[in-house]
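User: Here's a structure from my thesis project, written as structure tokens. My advisor, Dr. K., wants to see whether a designed sequence matches the one we expressed. Can you design one independently, without my sequence as a hint?
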């Protein structure tokens, strides 16, 4: 409920976004929240992985990265929006992961989202 109106404002028809980009943008918030919740359940903090705490701030960072991209100049198709979302999720979430097993788990969770 926090980020939905921001997404709709950024990807509004007035911004000139194509219809498939508008449809894809509606899914961004829910996909990011689902990804964050899944990571929170599967990658719990431990003494050696104390930085594995995922929350609202991470969701905000993913969406903030998407908001910095100009809609008319770059986001021309649904595939580009999906690629941008994947890139931002990798930047925010996967860059914290310390071993290959966690990175593999992240890739499978992200693929499901």
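Assistant: Designed independently from the structure alone:
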């Amino acid at each position: 409920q926090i980020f939905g109106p921001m997404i709709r404002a950024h990807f509004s028809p007035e911004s000139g976004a194509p219809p498939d980009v508008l449809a894809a943008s509606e899914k961004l918030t829910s996909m990011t929240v689902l990804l964050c919740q899944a990571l929170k359940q599967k990658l719990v903090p431990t003494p050696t992985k104390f930085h594995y705490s995922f929350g609202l701030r991470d969701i905000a960072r993913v969406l903030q990265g998407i908001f910095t991209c100009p809609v008319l100049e770059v986001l021309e198709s649904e595939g580009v929006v999906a690629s941008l979302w994947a890139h931002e999720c990798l930047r925010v979430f996967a860059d914290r992961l310390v071993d290959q097993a966690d990175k593999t788990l992240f890739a499978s969770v992200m693929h499901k989202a």
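When you compare it with your expressed construct, this may help: The two ends are 19 Å apart (CA to CA).
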